[in-house]
């Protein structure tokens, strides 16, 4: 695979779904699959699958289909999931605590190290074995513990200020739950999460059954 080849974001955004289903196939000890069979379980058309996976080259063979293990490992590499990341959570309220309580994240290589908050009633408490620290300690903690990613779960009006602080650190990525478009230093990547986007699509599909059956 040519790792420098520019892959469209539309393809990249489909890869986690391939990754998830391929993992399930491996767990069921399925080691070989055609694009047609993959299409039936994943919901993308066979031609879409061939087109997507051709981007990376070498995964499928005419008449054989895909080697599930190779494909899974290939996508793991493309998404850089074989390397672990060190994570902090900023804002230890409902969302921050929910993420800290989600063991799947730890098992997927996103190693949550600590939470940060301003609320003195939360500072010093633990969520599972993770300590909640004073937000004032954030910068020093990031540098000392080689933190790569911040999950930001603070109220909307506080979040840009936090992004300004993060911009002064060596942090590389922000997973932003707060509904605000952040301005950050150019060496930080921001990925916004809006659960409601998916919910609103559900609402649309509920009322347009034909579309939902596609
Ligand atoms: P929450 O009020 O339970 O928690 C927010 C926490 O941030 C509190 O513990 C508060 O003390 C702390 N905080 C406030 N200012 C801070 C600062 N300067 N530094 C560090 N910590 C600070 O709120 P909740 O429900 O956890 O929501 C958090 C954010 O996530 C909100 O912006 C909300 O709109 C957003 N949200 C996003 C969703 C999504 O799908 N993206 C879904 C639900 C919530």
From TrEMBL:
<dbReference type="InterPro" id="IPR036390">
    <property type="entry name" value="WH_DNA-bd_sf"/>
</dbReference>
<keyword id="KW-0804">Transcription</keyword>
<dbReference type="Pfam" id="PF06971">
    <property type="entry name" value="Put_DNA-bind_N"/>
</dbReference>
<dbReference type="InterPro" id="IPR022876">
    <property type="entry name" value="Tscrpt_rep_Rex"/>
</dbReference>
<protein>
    <recommendedName>
        <fullName>Redox-sensing transcriptional repressor Rex</fullName>
    </recommendedName>
</protein>
<dbReference type="Pfam" id="PF02629">
    <property type="entry name" value="CoA_binding"/>
</dbReference>
<keyword id="KW-0805">Transcription regulation</keyword>
<dbReference type="InterPro" id="IPR036291">
    <property type="entry name" value="NAD(P)-bd_dom_sf"/>
</dbReference>
<comment type="function">
    <text>Modulates transcription in response to changes in cellular NADH/NAD(+) redox state.</text>
</comment>
<keyword id="KW-0678">Repressor</keyword>
<feature type="domain" description="CoA-binding">
    <location>
        <begin position="81"/>
        <end position="181"/>
    </location>
</feature>
<keyword id="KW-0238">DNA-binding</keyword>
<keyword id="KW-0520">NAD</keyword>
<comment type="similarity">
    <text>Belongs to the transcriptional regulatory Rex family.</text>
</comment>
<comment type="subunit">
    <text>Homodimer.</text>
</comment>
<dbReference type="InterPro" id="IPR003781">
    <property type="entry name" value="CoA-bd"/>
</dbReference>
<dbReference type="InterPro" id="IPR009718">
    <property type="entry name" value="Rex_DNA-bd_C_dom"/>
</dbReference>
<feature type="binding site">
    <location>
        <begin position="91"/>
        <end position="96"/>
    </location>
    <ligand>
        <name>NAD(+)</name>
    </ligand>
</feature>
<dbReference type="InterPro" id="IPR036388">
    <property type="entry name" value="WH-like_DNA-bd_sf"/>
</dbReference>
<keyword id="KW-0963">Cytoplasm</keyword>
<feature type="DNA-binding region" description="H-T-H motif">
    <location>
        <begin position="17"/>
        <end position="56"/>
    </location>
</feature>
């Amino acid at each position: 695979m040519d790792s420098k080849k520019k892959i469209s974001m539309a393809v990249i955004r489909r890869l986690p779904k391939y990754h998830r289903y391929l993992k399930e196939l491996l767990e069921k000890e399925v080691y070989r699959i055609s694009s047609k069979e993959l299409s039936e379980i994943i919901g993308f058309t066979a031609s879409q699958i061939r087109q997507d996976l051709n981007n990376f080259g070498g995964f499928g063979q005419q008449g054989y289909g895909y080697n599930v293990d190779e494909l899974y490992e290939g996508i793991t590499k493309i998404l850089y999931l074989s390397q672990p990341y060190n994570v902090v959570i900023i804002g230890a309220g409902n969302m921050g605590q929910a993420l800290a309580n989600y063991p799947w994240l730890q098992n997927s290589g996103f190693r949550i190290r600590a939470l940060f908050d301003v609320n003195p009633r939360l500072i010093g408490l633990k969520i599972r074995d993770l300590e909640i620290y004073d937000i004032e300690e954030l910068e020093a903690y990031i540098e000392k513990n080689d933190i790569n990613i911040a999950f930001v779960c603070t109220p909307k009006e506080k979040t840009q200020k936090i992004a300004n602080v993060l911009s002064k650190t060596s942090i590389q990525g922000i997973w932003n739950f707060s509904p605000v478009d952040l301005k950050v230093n150019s060496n930080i990547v921001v990925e916004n999460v809006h659960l409601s986007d998916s919910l609103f699509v559900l609402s649309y599909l509920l009322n347009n059954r034909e579309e939902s059956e596609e």
